[in-house]
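Design a sequence for this backbone.
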C-alpha cells in the first residue's frame, strides 16, 4: 500500500501548518538543537521553540492511512515514497531490487531502495506507521516528474504487479507534482513544496 512521501524543504513550519490545516495531526518533531537531536513533539507548538534555531530532521504528519514527513533543507528536494508491505513481500521486493542492481539498505523497521530515478523507495512493515488502515483516507495516486523514462515499468518488475497509483511525466526535475487523496477536501490546494493536493472526487489523474 502506498502510504508515504518525504521532502526536504526550507519551508518546514509552513509545510506543517499546511497539512494541519487540511486535517493532518503532527505526531512527532525531531530536530538538532545545540548539537544534539531532541524531540519537540506536540503539545509543543512553534511558539515554544521558534527562536531556538532548531534544524528539524523530521516532522511527521498523519491522517488515516497517510504518513507524510519533511525535514529542513536549503532547497526543496523530493527524497522518497513509501509502501507498507508484509515481511515476506519486503524480502521478495528486495531480491528483485538486487537483480535490478538497485541498492538495498535494510533496517530493523524500514528498508530503503535507491532507484536510478534519483529518489528512493521506502518499504515499511509496521502498520503502526499510520493512524488507521481504513481505506476512507489514503493516497489514491501520486503523479511524479522524472528525468528519464521507464519508472512505471520498473516498478511493475520490482513489485511483481503494475503499480497503478504511480503515474509519471518526463520533465527537468524529480519531484511529486500531485497527490490525489481519498478524503473530503473541498478543492485543489498546493503545499509549500509545490505538490498539488486534490480529492479523488474532484480530479482524476
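Sequence:
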Amino acid at each position: 500500500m502506498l502510504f508515504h512521501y518525504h521532502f526536504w524543504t526550507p519551508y518546514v513550519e509552513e509545510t506543517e501548518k499546511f497539512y494541519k490545516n487540511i486535517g493532518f495531526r503532527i505526531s512527532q518533531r525531531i530536530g538538532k538543537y545545540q548539537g544534539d537531536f531532541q524531540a519537540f513533539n506536540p503539545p509543543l507548538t512553534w511558539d515554544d521553540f521558534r527562536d531556538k534555531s532548531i534544524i528539524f530532521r523530521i516532522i511527521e504528519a498523519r491522517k488515516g492511512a497517510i504518513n507524510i514527513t519533511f525535514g529542513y533543507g536549503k532547497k526543496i528536494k523530493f527524497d522518497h515514497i513509501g509502501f507498507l508491505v508484509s515481511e515476506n513481500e519486503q524480502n521478495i521486493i528486495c531480491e528483485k531490487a538486487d537483480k535490478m542492481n538497485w541498492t538495498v539498505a535494510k533496517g530493523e523497521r524500514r528498508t530503503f531502495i535507491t532507484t536510478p530515478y534519483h529518489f528512493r523507495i521506502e518499504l515499511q512493515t509496521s502498520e503502526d506507521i499510520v493512524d488507521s488502515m481504513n481505506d476512507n483516507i489514503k493516497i489514491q495516486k501520486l503523479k511524479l516528474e522524472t528525468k528519464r523514462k521507464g519508472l512505471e515499468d520498473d516498478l511493475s518488475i520490482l513489485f511483481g504487479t503494475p503499480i497503478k497509483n504511480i503515474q509519471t511525466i518526463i520533465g527537468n526535475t524529480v519531484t511529486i507534482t500531485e497527490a490525489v487523496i481519498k478524503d473530503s477536501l473541498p478543492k485543489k490546494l498546493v503545499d509549500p513544496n509545490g505538490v498539488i493536493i486534490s480529492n479523488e472526487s474532484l480530479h482524476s489523474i
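The radius of gyration is 17 Å.
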